[in-house]
Amino acid sequence: MTGALLESDWEHLGLTVVSSDEDRTLVLFSSSDDMAEFRRRLEAYAGDIPVGQRNPAYQNFISTIEEIGNVEPRDRIGVRLREDGYREIEDFQNDAMLVLDLEIWDLGRRELRERKIEEITSYIEAMEGEVFDQYIGPSITLLRLRASGAVIRLLLRVEEVSSIDLPPEPDIVTGEAFNLEIQDLPPVNAIDDGMPVIGILDSGINNHPLIQDLIVGAIGVPPELGEADDFGHGTRVSGIAVFGDLGAQLASGQLMRGARLCSAKVVDRTGNFPERKLVASQMKEAITALNRDHGCRIFVIALADIKSQYTGGKVGVWAATLDELARDLDVLIVVSAGNRSPRGGNRIEQAVTEYPGYLLEPANRFYEPAGALNVLTVGSIAQGHGIDDVLGANVGVRPITSELEPSPFTRIGPGVEGSTKPDVVDIGGTLVYDPLTGLRRGENLPSAGVLTLHHLPLDRLFTSGSGTSYSAPLVAFKASQLLRVLPTASANLVRALLVGSASVPDPAKLKLQGFTEDEIRSVCGHGQIDLERAAYSDDARVVLYAEGDLQVDHFAVYHVPIPEPFQTENGTRSIRVTLAFDPPVRHSRVDYTGIGMNFRLLRGCTSEEVFEHYRRRPQDEGEVPEIPKKFNCTLLPGPQSREKSTVQTACATFKRDIGTYGDSYYLVVRCEGGWAAESVVLQRFALVVEIEHQAEVQLYQRVRARAIL
To answer: How far apart are CA 286 and CA 305, in angstroms?
Structure first.
């Protein structure tokens, strides 16, 4: 379809919508072969225009249909089978025996599906195959079978079959780690002075043997909360902040810690904030103290106000407080977007059948304080399907995600005035549908979660969990490694380098292919951070950066050297620009930020022409000299989308020869006054430019030579 899906119209024609995909593809089922009413409408549409009408009959209905075809056998081959090379039915060899999962369409009444399952089961067994398990739920109907390629080829031709695929492969790495003892672990690296300090504002941190020597300080805010983690959340968050991907480290046989820790306990043993203390004052006291006493410049807040969901308009005081602290102290604050269980009660199967559409529901907007603009807000993507070897034997247990697809629980934006929120996403686990117990998550199904440290190490060293509480400290870990490379970098520069390296993973793009660009951004932000890209250049990719400040209503022009191979060598080339700044904010105002900043990338003109176009001039001086439109590089996303955020990134892509525009481009950065114009003298910012040629053309030395000159 190219227009609305019109499900009710199809039902009037005697057709049942059994599937609707993100790319607006519909699968329809007809109980009769002739589909008489549908064919009548097609003929009427193709015939003469009725007297007195301007358009053919059924114009609104038929014109939105782009293509009609039958569901072919190859369409029923599942993703995992295709990845293993089974793309056509001829790929299934007669005598090859395979264990597969077969799903039939949701044909309506349960007895219809039960009857079809019985028919298919009888056929498989008659053909010397086996049916190991079956599951018939409110809408999901499955068989786990073992059969020859010859039988599978015939099953792929059964109209009621929606897909045949390999069963999910179990994730056993996380489960195995649960049984490790301290003597089984590889040694950890020693502390060194170059390790940045990450502050954890949570339920405290306990003296786990893998991190106890890294804890440089701990406080309770207020002091009567104490410092020990008797709730357990803070130690779990800390494990990710220190190790990053702990599961991958254990699998590789090494444990490399990347940061030291300090802790501010701000919630009690039940995970609640104290009654006699304002959250805003807690945040200010905790962050200020840890910054002052321990030099902490990266903070993780994997907490949220579940009674304060952002629905548009103004952000709350908690978010505004974090924005003020980030600006005043020049610190990076990383905040989780919050979690939502996608379905419950009788609708629990919809967590599988309606994924990922429900991510866009209004009820899935982020929690306070994730709308803060001067912080990095983090959503979650899945590490895989999350099924272990025990559950994998039950055909009714269904994964919701595959690797690097949005987690079913992640919360979305956009933020204030349409700003990009979350800013980025990272691994935070997944959910698994279990017909016996409902939705399983990392806390009770290790394979569905992210491996981290248990807060009671005498009982168990490791635990797991699912949630944006685990993706946020992973981003903080990456920030700490970047700060280790650039120890004097401002918080703005760290934000710009991280966001400038991020991209939405291809599996997430594929899963969200029916979403608009804005909708994808509201789920995934700018994507997942690539730490290698953030920290280093390479031969064919050069990262330039600068820090500075601007007076309100002033601009700066940066010269971007463009080497000759970038201009003319065949292949895709790109220039990506990222700007981060930390404006003053005011919670009570609709125009939340008091200063705005933006950028433009120009080519084919001189620096004098650029300055003449952008400089302020008296009214009697005449009109502003225009710069031809062709000299303005097209950066995507465009200014209307990106300029609502305090960290903005956009990319210009080139595929043709651009030698006519010369070897010098100019990046114009502008600072525009808002309500804070009279009180702000200078606005800080950081700028990152990445120049890349995908054909591995040597750029680095050429750009470096010109930059030094």
So the answer is: 18
